[in-house]
């Protein structure tokens, strides 16, 4: 089944070339079913790339999904045109009275900035608070996961000795959780960050459980025991070349980045990186949509009002 997006969103052309079924608004109006309502808070600089990555993953489900995009009105976006934001994105004030089955909060390349010093932190806190009564299940990614843990559970991030970047093996610790249904005991996933979350801080929370962990990269997936919030520290949504682009970008900036671990064949930057994580990415997001969202969300979303995660 398709994902439903605005008719002229540029991501549609990319997804159609990949034979991914995308339904525009006109065609979707003739579907007599209740689609899932998913909101994506896109905090990444190159929003069009993240749109393609997340829409690709959300398409791997037999359910019809209405997707809307949200950006921070308190932050000036430099890498995405104002025209694109105006045509395809909402501001929080425009959606705050609505209800959603699911919310995805992306990462942002600002890990080294204290949360309170992020220019849109106040607005983001308002969204976090709103989500507890207007969203059934929220999926947080990388910095979005760290920010969510800090806001909802007072769990702070810590600085790593150096940037964690590369492809790492991960162990599934809780295979009985529905979001991990069908996973092998070990899978690969990308990481790209300067900060992390400590295991003992998660263990001290009565509401959270560690679901997936890497011996090299640390925590990967944390779940709220009520199944309504998930925190992924890595970037399963990344494309094959994303880490390469980040590495080359940092080189141009004179940062002298470390080579991404387990990424380039033979550590040779002229060779094409192997894609080893998209199967896990597709399964994780389809499980989230099916089991955490669709199987449990109320038909009348307005009944979420007053509930807490």
UniProtKB/TrEMBL annotation:
<dbReference type="GO" id="GO:0004414">
    <property type="term" value="F:homoserine O-acetyltransferase activity"/>
</dbReference>
<feature type="binding site">
    <location>
        <position position="163"/>
    </location>
    <ligand>
        <name>substrate</name>
    </ligand>
</feature>
<dbReference type="GO" id="GO:0019281">
    <property type="term" value="P:L-methionine biosynthetic process from homoserine via O-succinyl-L-homoserine and cystathionine"/>
</dbReference>
<dbReference type="GO" id="GO:0008899">
    <property type="term" value="F:homoserine O-succinyltransferase activity"/>
</dbReference>
<feature type="active site" description="Acyl-thioester intermediate">
    <location>
        <position position="142"/>
    </location>
</feature>
<dbReference type="InterPro" id="IPR005697">
    <property type="entry name" value="HST_MetA"/>
</dbReference>
<keyword id="KW-0808">Transferase</keyword>
<keyword id="KW-0012">Acyltransferase</keyword>
<feature type="binding site">
    <location>
        <position position="192"/>
    </location>
    <ligand>
        <name>substrate</name>
    </ligand>
</feature>
<feature type="active site">
    <location>
        <position position="237"/>
    </location>
</feature>
<keyword id="KW-0963">Cytoplasm</keyword>
<comment type="similarity">
    <text>Belongs to the MetA family.</text>
</comment>
<dbReference type="InterPro" id="IPR029062">
    <property type="entry name" value="Class_I_gatase-like"/>
</dbReference>
<feature type="active site" description="Proton acceptor">
    <location>
        <position position="235"/>
    </location>
</feature>
<feature type="site" description="Important for substrate specificity">
    <location>
        <position position="192"/>
    </location>
</feature>
<keyword id="KW-0486">Methionine biosynthesis</keyword>
<comment type="function">
    <text>Transfers an acetyl group from acetyl-CoA to L-homoserine, forming acetyl-L-homoserine.</text>
</comment>
<keyword id="KW-0028">Amino-acid biosynthesis</keyword>
<dbReference type="InterPro" id="IPR033752">
    <property type="entry name" value="MetA_family"/>
</dbReference>
<protein>
    <recommendedName>
        <fullName>Homoserine O-acetyltransferase</fullName>
        <ecNumber>2.3.1.31</ecNumber>
    </recommendedName>
</protein>
<feature type="binding site">
    <location>
        <position position="249"/>
    </location>
    <ligand>
        <name>substrate</name>
    </ligand>
</feature>
<dbReference type="Pfam" id="PF04204">
    <property type="entry name" value="HTS"/>
</dbReference>
<dbReference type="GO" id="GO:0005737">
    <property type="term" value="C:cytoplasm"/>
</dbReference>
<feature type="site" description="Important for acyl-CoA specificity">
    <location>
        <position position="111"/>
    </location>
</feature>
<comment type="pathway">
    <text>Amino-acid biosynthesis; L-methionine biosynthesis via de novo pathway; O-acetyl-L-homoserine from L-homoserine: step 1/1.</text>
</comment>
């Amino acid at each position: 089944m398709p994902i439903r997006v605005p008719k002229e969103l540029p991501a549609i052309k990319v997804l159609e070339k990949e034979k991914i079924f995308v339904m525009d608004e006109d065609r979707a109006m003739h579907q007599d079913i209740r689609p899932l309502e998913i909101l994506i808070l896109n905090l990444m600089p190159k929003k069009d790339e993240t749109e393609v990555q997340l829409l690709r993953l959300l398409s791997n489900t037999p359910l019809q999904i209405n997707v809307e995009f949200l950006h921070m009105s308190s932050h000036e976006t430099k890498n995405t045109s104002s025209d694109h934001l105006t045509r395809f994105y909402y501001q929080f004030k425009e959606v705050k009275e609505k209800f959603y089955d699911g919310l995805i909060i992306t990462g942002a390349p600002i890990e080294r900035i204290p949360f309170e010093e992020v220019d849109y932190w106040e607005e983001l806190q308002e969204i976090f608070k709103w989500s507890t009564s207007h969203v059934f299940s929220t999926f947080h990614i990388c910095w979005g996961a760290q920010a969510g843990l800090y806001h909802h559970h007072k769990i702070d991030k810590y600085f790593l000795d150096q940037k964690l970047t590369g492809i790492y093996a991960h162990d599934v610790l809780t295979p009985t959780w529905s979001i991990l249904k069908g996973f092998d005991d070990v899978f690969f996933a990308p990481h790209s960050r300067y900060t992390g979350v400590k295991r003992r801080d998660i263990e001290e929370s009565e509401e959270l459980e560690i679901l997936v962990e890497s011996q090299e990269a640390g925590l990967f997936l944390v779940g709220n025991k009520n199944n309504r919030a998930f925190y992924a520290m890595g970037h399963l949504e990344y494309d094959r070349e994303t880490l390469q682009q980040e590495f080359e970008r940092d080189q141009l900036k004179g940062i002298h980045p470390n080579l991404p671990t387990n990424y380039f064949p033979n550590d040779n930057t002229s060779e094409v990186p192997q894609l080893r994580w998209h199967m896990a990415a597709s399964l994780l997001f389809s499980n989230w949509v099916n089991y955490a969202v669709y199987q449990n969300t109320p038909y009348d979303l307005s009944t979420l009002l007053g509930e807490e995660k």
